[in-house]
Amino acid sequence: MKAYEIQKEGEGLDRLVQVERPDPQPGPGQVVVRMRAASLNYRDQPMVKGGYHTPAPGAFIPLSDGAGEVVAVGDGVHRVKLGDRVCPTFFQVWVDGRPPAGYGALGGPRDGVLAEQVLVHEDGLVKIPDDLSFEEAACLPCAALTAWNALFVAGRPLKAGQSVLVLGTGGVSIFALQFARAAGARVIATSSSDAKIARLKQMGADACINYKSTPDWENEVQRLTGGAESKAPDGRTVVVGGGVDVVVEVGGAGTLPKSYAALGWSGKISLIGVMTQQENPAALNPIGLAFKAGSVHGIMVGSRAMFEDMLKAMALNGIRPVVDKVFAWDDARKAYETAIAGDFFGKVLIRI
Ligand SMILES: NC(=O)c1ccc[n+]([C@@H]2O[C@H](COP(=O)([O-])OP(=O)(O)OC[C@H]3O[C@@H](n4cnc5c(N)ncnc54)[C@H](OP(=O)(O)O)[C@@H]3O)[C@@H](O)[C@H]2O)c1
């Protein structure tokens, strides 16, 4: 079968190469999936550029998120049958509750889905609804599930009438916008691009802020949620007294202090991402949260059970993933270049 390998992590796109690998054969409990589409997440960028927090020891097949159909099953498989349309789960062994130890993800450190065929255990599969295309389903295992967990599972679940802040227009944030709107919440969204802000509004964002032209966007979030100007002890003008109920925090240390400031009374920051500066002393001082009874809740993608709950909610609410750009198999490097350039809204995919 054909596959892509990252032959040495962190050494750039020249080390993303097409290879031939033996067709996998299913053992007891195992399933071979003929992959049809795969999508990129932010984590796939440091895998080629360097800096991923758990580097893979050698060559590996990249990408965690994909969809395809079952083409072979081993003895004892009962959860799926030949021809079923499925997604492999991000953490193959996390079915429900607390994940077992050693739960490495697909696409590093485990071999991922940018291959014609993938061998998985039957427990690491979710059946996808008939009305979702392979491309749409390939957006779900990491990006959508993380947004779902951040809003409805971790800590206090989002309620109708509450407000949510989403940062940027990548995979997790766009799913969070869709899920929060479907749940009856008000969504404030940020982006570096006015053109992308126009798309956010079309998708139902209630208010948008360009975080490049408005670097103090936390004050704007406060203003939009009923806050009023006040003088900080250091003489700065800040806006306080408003704030959102949930921040879907994909920025990391660079944006976290602003997210503390944008949060409202008893709000929750779902701590997800690492896109901005890795170290920031202000991020280490969440004392302001104490005065608004706020919380920071870590998120690790999600379990298979959460995935299945999310699919039910998506079907009921007619939520479809935003497939922005789809590249042919031979153009996988172009897909990576597009993601690295930030030239997308929602998801970038590769057809397999
Ligand atoms: N903990 C977990 O379980 C988990 C799961 C999934 C993802 N993540 C993390 O979450 C983050 C987002 O992942 P993703 O796959 O959704 O990313 P993505 O699809 O690659 O989206 C990146 C987008 O983020 C926006 N962005 C970049 N810098 C920003 C900043 N300083 N402030 C606000 N927005 C900024 C940009 O939007 P604009 O172009 O609109 O400016 C960019 O297009 C990554 O750090 C990823 O590693 C963690």
Topology:
Elements lengths: L1 E5 L9 E5 L9 E10 L4 H6 L15 E9 L11 E4 L28 E5 L3 E3 L6 H4 L2 H14 L9 E5 L3 H12 L3 E6 L2 H9 L4 E4 L6 H8 L3 E4 L5 E4 L3 E6 L6 H7 E9 L15 H4 L4 E4 L5 H14 L5 E5 L4 H10 L5 E5 L1
Helix pairs in contact: 3-4, 6-7
Bound molecules: NADP nicotinamide-adenine-dinucleotide phosphate (NAP).
NADP nicotinamide-adenine-dinucleotide phosphate binds next to helix 3, helix 4 and strand 9.
Walk me through what this model shows:
- This protein is an alpha/beta fold and 352 residues long.
- The protein folds into two domains: 193 residues, Medium-chain alcohol dehydrogenases, catalytic domain (Quinone Oxidoreductase, Chain A, domain 1), CATH 3.90.180; 144 residues, 3-Layer(aba) Sandwich (Rossmann fold).
- Strand 13, helix 7 and strand 14 form a beta-alpha-beta unit.
- The longest helix has 14 residues.
- The structure holds NADP nicotinamide-adenine-dinucleotide phosphate.
- NADP nicotinamide-adenine-dinucleotide phosphate binds next to helix 3, helix 4 and strand 9.
What descriptors fit this protein?
globular; seven-stranded mixed beta sheet; 352 residues; Quinone Oxidoreductase, Chain A, domain 1; six-stranded parallel beta sheet; Rossmann fold; 17 strands; alpha/beta; 2 domains; 10 helices; binds NADP nicotinamide-adenine-dinucleotide phosphate; 26% strand
Give me the Rg, rounded. Answer: 20 Å
Q: Under the CATH scheme, which architecture of the largest domain would be assigned?
A: Alpha-Beta Complex
Total of DSSP H or I helical runs spanning 4+ residues: 10
State mean pLDDT (0 to 100 scale): 95
